[in-house]
């Protein structure tokens, strides 16, 4: 049994997604940006889910949304990434061109400057605690950027930055569906504590998907943060999820201290991590299901020894 998606949350349009390939990108670029038509196109190492990403030449990337809901993110990134990038301590994507529907592809799309680096994994990070504090510094800087007129949490951000209650029905259904594999009372306690720890501060900028695949490292250090499709202004608790998906022990503690968030924000972050793990537990890909189980184990262990 799998939970139903929450209302107004972006999802992949399978019919369109299956058509997104190198040839489609070549046609779109040739049709709309002929000055780049002769440049080679090839898939990137990690192509993404919300958007499918390709190299264009040596210095650019092309990102095509995989569904109508994700297409809402294109204009937002085009508008706000230059503003944010000038105010942040690490590299973030720089929009170079704004594509329109065409070549039998129905959504707007983007061309960005290429950022050198590899996605963050434990093996590629020289010092996980330093990585954690560098990431916390970036997120503090992001929160400090003026949020006036920024995009308020909604469907464009998959409700990141908004209330966790958006995902309450889906989460409770997932808990019930997995009651034979989970300590239901404990998991429900974690979720309820997250719901009860409401956000009462002013809206601030959040990234919305601080995951290892969106963090780039070079020479073992964090150097760039990519994929701002879920960004917006609101509650930054969703940006703490990396604490349970990648960080462990001392690095998690260092991240929490350097991020300087209160206990309520940390509790809501646990809620975001719990929701994601629960809805991924039945993933058909063994690696994704194993990831979900590991995150759940981390959440349960931390709950047993609260700070």
Describe the structure.
The protein has 307 residues and is α+β, with helices and mostly antiparallel strands. It is 41% helix and 14% strand. The protein has ten helices and ten strands. It has helices spanning 14-17, 22-32, 68-85, 128-144, 168-177, 184-196, 242-245, 249-259, 263-280, 286-304; strands at residues 41-43, 51-56, 60-65, 95-99, 109-113, 118-119, 204-206, 215-218, 221-225, 232-234. The strands form three sheets. The chain has a five-stranded antiparallel beta sheet, with helices on both faces. A three-stranded antiparallel beta sheet has the order 6-8-9, with helices on one face. The chain has a two-stranded antiparallel sheet with strand order 7-10. The chain is globular and about 60 Å long. The two termini are 34 Å apart. 41% of the residues are buried.
Count of strand segments: 10
The dominant shape is globular
Cα-based radius of gyration, to the nearest Å: 19 Å
Number of H- or I-type helical stretches: 10
Q: Order of SSEs, N→C?
A: HHEEEHEEEHHHEEEEHHHH
**Termini separation (Å)?**
34 Å
Query: Roughly how much helix do the residues carry, as a percent range?
Result: 40-55%
Q: Look at the structure and give the mean pLDDT.
A: 93
Main β-sheet: number of strands, strand sense, barrel status? Answer: 5 strands, antiparallel
Query: What would you call the structural class?
Result: alpha+beta
Major β-sheet strand ordering:
1-2-3-5-4
